[in-house]
Amino acid sequence: MRLFLLVCLTMLAFAANSILGRAAIGGGYMDATGFGLWRLVSGALMLALLCSARGLNPWSRERVLRPASLWGGAALTLYMAGFTLAYQDLDAGLGALVLFGVVQISMFLWGALRGNPAAGMQVAGAVLAFLGLAYVVWPADGTGVPLMASLLMAASGLGWGIYSLLGRGARQPLAATAVNFAWSSAMMLPVLLLAGGGTVVSLWGVLLAVLSGAVTSGMGYALWYRVLPQLAPAVAATVQLSVPVIAILAGAVLLGEPVGLRLVFGTAAVLGGIALVVLRAPARKGQAAKQAAR
After folding, report:
1. What is the pTM assigned to this prediction?
2. What is the domain count for the chain?
3. How many other CB atoms sit within 10 Å of the CB of residue 275?
4. For 228-255, what is each residue's pLDDT tens digit?
5. Staple 155 to which of 22, 82, 240, 243, CB 3.0 to 4.6 Å?
6. Whole domain around residue 162: which residue ranges?
7. How far apart are the first and last CA of the chain?
């Protein structure tokens, strides 16, 4: 039950990132790449403060230069850069579909390669959840999908899939996430310069970016690294399909966005598919015990 609540809290944090980003970028308070950089820097600072409060030192030479830290920073940068650049030309719903579709594929394949393939009913549940998401976000008018923006979002999904898989080996999730955010903040600077970002800045935009970085990204990603070792790759991949649905529902409540029968039916399919994957997941008692002992 505790794991279920932690996963739900993590998915809510991920969805909140979408809401905050839409409010800041869609509202014209900040440009996309500038928002991404503010988000990373504020997340790194908040995580550093939390590490200090808990007596952790994430900045040791061994940890900072560890290959896993460099790869984690690079994967997070790929996710953030692809995400922010793609959404300049890609509809939010289609972007979520491409992003989480690639995340699913990458994590399912990794599980299979590592000797932990998904069961047949888990694959069926994942397909059901994905089709439910597609039904929710696919444009009713059948408009085409911008190729370059879709490729950027696919790269973003690959980055997030790699970042999630790396998190399965994190022994100190808070410290590992702090270092990842610090590396990614530095790696994001060339992206900002090449994309010509950072030109639209406002106080409200900065506040939204800091909230997204310090709370829903920094703390949310650290929590994700904490729960990942207790989840099979198929489960970790599929539960994330709930994030766009949660974001759409929250957008309806907070931003006054419309709700229709497509959302109701699609949400039922997503939740039903996730339930099928979770219920068919093999027990991970050994990993859960190791995580509790850390």
Report:
1. 0.82
2. 1
3. 14
4. 888 888 888 889 888 888 877 777 777 6
5. 82
6. 2-293
7. 19
Closest of 246, 286, 281, 251 to residue 267, by C-alpha:
246
> If you ran DSSP here, which 8-state letter would residue 142 be given?
-
Q: From CA 84, how far away is CA 35, in angstroms rounded?
A: 8
Name the residue type at position 143. T
> Per residue in 155-175, pLDDT tens?
999 999 999 888 887 888 899
Q: Is the dihedral of CA 154, 155, 161, 164 positive or negative?
A: negative
Phi, psi of 140 (to 5 degrees): -65, -30
For residue 282, give both structure tokens: 């093999």
d(CA 65, CA 69) in angstroms, rounded, equals: 7
Residue 292: pLDDT band by 50, 70, 90 thresholds? very low
The answer on pLDDT for 261 being more than 80 is: no
From CA 230, how far away is CA 280, in angstroms rounded? 15
